[in-house]
Amino acid sequence: MKANCTCTLLKSEKNKIIIDTRTPWDGDSLITALQQQNIKPEDINYVICTHSHSDHIGCNYLFQNALHIVGKTCISRNDLYYDYDFKDNHVIDEYVKLITTPGHTSECITVLVQTQEGLIAIVGDLFEKKQDMDDEELWKCCSDFPEIQEESRRKILEIADFIVPGHGPMFKNPNKT
Ligand SMILES: [Zn+2]
After folding, report:
1. CATH match for 8-168 among 3.60.15.10, 2.60.120.10, 3.30.70.270, 3.40.50.300
2. If the chain, 177 residues long, is cut into consecutive pieces of 10 residues, what is the mean pLDDT of each piece?
């Protein structure tokens, strides 16, 4: 099986946030993709990883000026680790919020982004790809806690207008018209 994750860049006046940094072999292609947005790795001030599987954290090392949030329990900058109780959510700024969405792993988080087009949920492997809405084996096969994941998926389908899955392009939530 081949795997590489969806990598998302969020830009606002205040924050430059990268979500899920692919494998350690993707450094050059990530830097090139950022250059096309006029962004250097040192401009990124938040690295957020939906969970700590190696295809989601591989290039975290590129972003030396950022606060690193990996899943719900690990928040660090340089060699300083923060004792932080994530509880159910964590607010980054007026547009970006993190919520816990366990199932694929116990530590999984989702990034919720309020945009003019609606609420976008960047969910990591809570949804592997659009097709797993019709074929549940596509996500259940990689799930640590399928029943809990089912519940987290339901929660996202209630609120999100668009979903960025862990391994595929963004799609519209079919439950929303
Ligand atoms: Zn994973």
Report:
1. 3.60.15.10
2. 85 94 95 96 97 96 96 90 80 94 97 96 97 94 96 98 96 91
> Edge-to-edge strands of the sheet including 16-19?
8-11, 16-19, 46-49, 67-70, 74-77, 80-81
Domain spans in the chain, listed from the N-terminal domain onward: 8-168
- Ligand 1 centroid, distance to 30 Cα (angstroms): 19
Which alpha helices (H) appear in the chain, and where do they start and end?
A: 27-35, 54-57, 137-140, 146-159
Question: 43 CA to middle of ligand 1, Å?
Answer: 27
Q: How confident is the model at residue 87, as a pLDDT?
A: 75
For residue 47, the CA-to-ligand 1 centroid distance in Å is 17
Query: Which two structure tokens, joined as six digits, stand for 175?
Result: 């439950």
Distance from the CA of 100 to the center of ligand 1, in angstroms?
A: 15
76 CA to centre of ligand 1 in angstroms: 20
